[in-house]
Fold each of these.
Amino acid sequence: MRVPDDVPVSAPAVPSSSDLSGYARQVRGSYRMLLRRRLGILVVIAVCIVASVVLDFCLGPSGLSVGALIHTLLHPHDVSAGQSVIVWQIRLPYALMAVCVGAALGLAGAEMQTVLANPLASPFTLGVSAAAAFGASLAIILQWRLPGVPDAWVVSADAFVFAIGSVLLLDMVSRRRNAGTGTVVLFGIALVFAFHALVSLLQFVANEDALQDLVFWTMGSLTRATWPKLGLLAVACVVVAPLSFRAAWKLTVLRMGEERAASLGVDVPRVRRGALLRVSILSALAVSFVGTIGFVGLVAPHIARRLLGEDHRFYLPGSMFVGALVMSLSSVAARNIMPGVVIPTGIVTALVGIPFFLAIVLRRQGLS
Amino acid sequence: MMDGLFAEHVTVRYGRRTVLDDLTAGPFPAGKVSALLGPNGSGKSTLLRAMAGLGEAAGRVMLGPDELSRMSLAQRTRRCLYLPQTLPATVHLQVLESLLAAQNATGVMPGGMGGDEIDAALRMLDIFGIADLAMRYMDELSGGQRQLVGLAQALGRHPDALLLDEPLSALDLHHQFAVMEVLRRETERRNIVTVMVLHDLNIAVRMTDYDVILREGKIIAAGPPCDVITSDTLRQTYDIVARVETCSRGLPHIMVDGLAPVSH
């Protein structure tokens, strides 16, 4: 049935093809500019990371000059054993661990927020950190250990087992039919409370020394960085990140709504499972090595989203870079706020990250 | 070229509840706009989703000679696209990017940087009169604008069958008619099957070619709008007393007098 011509119905006028092609040229140009600007932002953050690592490496309580540090780095055998240990076993792994942990948590948080469609999702808020703390407390207080784990790895191994277990639980809940993203987030929050209660219980029965160890562990500290742990985390990042980036389009579409993504051919349960698996490896490793430093995982994605938008081709690496930068800056601050004292990084991360975070989030809101 | 979209013996259960029981609907003709009508919860969206391959459904769905229900999800959604009733979410993503993402949804990086893709996306936006929104962020747009973006994303995928779940729900009167005109024009030009869930019976009676009325998962009537939308069927499906009158220009118009007395 056709609508007669005299009925006042108007379809949007199609401009003549020359108008549109002129406009298209304009849009193409400005889109290219935008892509270039985003790449520029990524490069700037990367440069900042390098600068921050250098700063982290050079500043510290040992009182060594920059020249001496560089000399030790280039000629480790020419200097005293003490100086070599400071550079090679403390400064360098510490500075690099900050970057790796930040990158891992930044990427994990970004993927988590996308697949769970919740801006509050992060390894910190959904119980991964709390589970790791519980694992660590089992090791520190009850001396529970997995068979065959060397002494230096006991706390990390226990923490890792529980951290990865908590993500698998989240995954199981998300796989249930009719489990909305809200259900998963509430379940994660329940995990946080459950593990906090269990940790408190263990603290209650712990002796004084073990209690002190545990409290210190839960504050999160980069001083636990060792080369093997650093290596393992770096390899995990290098392996996992490209897999995340490959899923960038699917994740971008998923942001527009689960049903919409499915109707565009995205196998949503599969994408979510893959993402949670990546998240579990990265966040569990990071948290089990350095303690409760989950805050970066919440903040970095928000900062990246504001700087780069939600095209996951930029958002995912962006969140990774921002995480690394925030963590590295926190590490610098942790050792230089109070002369001679290294404040646990978990504390500083929150104190450094929050103002940064609020500034960006509130400024955007003011504009829109 | 194509005989249309045909759902045969479709059964859908949500848990223990059977929403569609051995329903056969269609064929929804190619080159024409079809509508699914019926009260809330009558199974309209469920039928659309089942035809698009979303969720579990028993039965066979044919698009012309091809059996959609045997294809993989990625293949199937390329041929037959469902546009959900929910609007695209308010994400911090530019309208243009959202079209590129919809276009590349199942692809891997890189891609989506090409000028051709941008031109095609702009043409789609232009069809719906929103080319000027290309560089705006989705989280700055109104609900109606986002609905138009959703439609542009859908048409931009060039499906052979387009299944739209209440595509006019967030639009003002002008845009409701404008979108219907665009959909009619594109459906005819591309010779595709377009099926939409509609609540506005006057739009259905005047701007669609083939209607199916559902109630409680059963087809009450199917055929050309004038045969399908009658006092009888409206009473049967919506429990209302209504008349189909002819307006001063000779066009059909539905007048609702009130609720029908409860009979069952």
Note: Chain A touches chain B through 48 residues (CB under 8 Å).
Amino acid sequence: MNRKHLISPKSQDKLFKIFAALCTGLVLLTLLVLLIDIGIKGIQRINWSFFTNLPSRHPEESGIYTALAGMVGLLFFTVIIALPIGILSGIYLQEYGKRNKLAKFIEINISNLAGVPSVIYGILGLQLFVRTAGFGNSILSGALTLALLIMPVIIVSTREAIKAVPDSLREASFGLGATKWQTVRRVVLPASFGGILTGIILSTSRAIGETAPLIVVGALAYVPFVPEGPMDQYTSLPIQIFNWTSRPQQGFVVNAAAGIIVLLLFTFILNGTAIYLRNRWYKKTAI
Amino acid sequence: MTCPGIVKLYDMFRCYFLLLLCPLIWCSCFKAYKGKINIDGSSSVYPLTEAVAEEFRKQHADIRISVGISGTGGGFKKFLRGETDISNASRPISPEELKISRTNGIEFIEIPVCYDGMAIVVSPKNTFVDYITVAELKRMWSPQSQGKINSWKQVRDSWPDVPLNLYGAGTSSGTYDYFTEAINGKAKASRGDYTASEDDNVLVQGVSSDIGGLGYFGLAYFTENKAKLKLVPVKYSTESEAVFPNDSTVQHGKYQPLSRPEFIYVNLKSAKKTYVQEFIKFYLEHASSLAQEVGYVPLPQAVYRLSHLRFTRGSTGSVFENKSIVGANLLQLLSKQE
């Protein structure tokens, strides 16, 4: 009894508050230190020529032009491939699929897939797309691999978004004599689209930073040309950064920092858009 | 209920299939190239090949060259499937890989392109190490030492009882293969309880701040971090003289056994194409100056000339098929085969 009141509940409350604030502060501090370190190292290197130059052995002449082009191409195809499959699977599982053991099983597996280390997807992509399908080390192989990687996230977020659409909407639609497909297309999808979009953007910002699976499926390091199509070779910004950090010359470290700033900007913009859309969407549907 | 902006976005999204047209438009603006050369393989040869490709591009913009970094083993895997024209390698092709090349019917020309001296380094705070012998290195790194040799005193009696912390290349790198073969007598035979990293900059950081640390990596990483590290000269045997690695000692074979040659392997089929021939000619003409620029040691000029001769004659196969790479005299080996 006595021990329990050694610290009064009130001060316990206070202590916990301080402890939690400290934890948050620690996380933020780590992030801040990383950002400042990268910023100080890299910001001087960011200028127009950094975006327009080809890779080079001279760090000060080396640029990210082709890496950026490769990354944009890669993301474009990743989204184009993952989008319909992910959304349609989500719709099926949530609106059409029966609630039985198989559905449970599939659900667990999709959640598990979202947690599989990305390099495993790379190995799968290497065998499936690069070798068996014969796409070689092309943008298409890379995009298919990344699409597999982000698909579980898209499926899960699509389901969450659809689940949040109130049943009264569906019932009203059915009441007017609409078929299931009409209801899904005209009512459920428009109402949940904000949430779906958020999921897609967040998964894209995950795909943007992936390096390991791309190295496995054959992204190259020195690519002095913009890819000419989905079947062409490519490099991506994370690969370029990885390559720079392992070079002995100090100048490449600066380049890597500058590359990281560009990559971070991309992720910030994507995540910012996602947060903006989510806020807007929740405000409208939560009524 | 739903916000109109989102609905509009959703409507736009139904034009998804229009997006599919974009790649077709993209594909239709092709540029014509005279030829494409695909190179992949070792990350240690990469800086040199990149430099050569960059210079080559200035003169031959119509020949497209791409270079990957899959590692020596990964590069050979692609090379032996016929997926690449040239493979960068920081060790000679292995007997298993030779076997695959025979079953796959891939013939190749082996070309040494530069030397890389492997630097043995300690922290600048370490004042007691003046030189190290190969036998002492073996005592530190051999698989039998795992968990047993933990102090500098155990390696040489006159050294103090300071804990010995080792830093070295990761197991998938060609550097690891070469070092273990040169020091322990067998490739891939090494103690496992050391700090391993594929990224040499990590090793530099580790050794520089650790008074009991000792590490090995490419000479270029020492040259770029001279202030943070102390280079240790190596004695081949107790009687011989302690040698520092530098351009001259590495090139003339005095820094033994830690001078390793780096190679490129050219697929014979590709070697028949004129633009590949042009590239190889350019490579061997400029390797000497470019190697120095990126931190490697050039081979003697005679070796480059001999290699080009062998290339134009189409001499296939590896001169290291039944011979160890460690301590090999390239000039003798290559001319013997001619």
Note: Chain A has a mean pLDDT of 88.
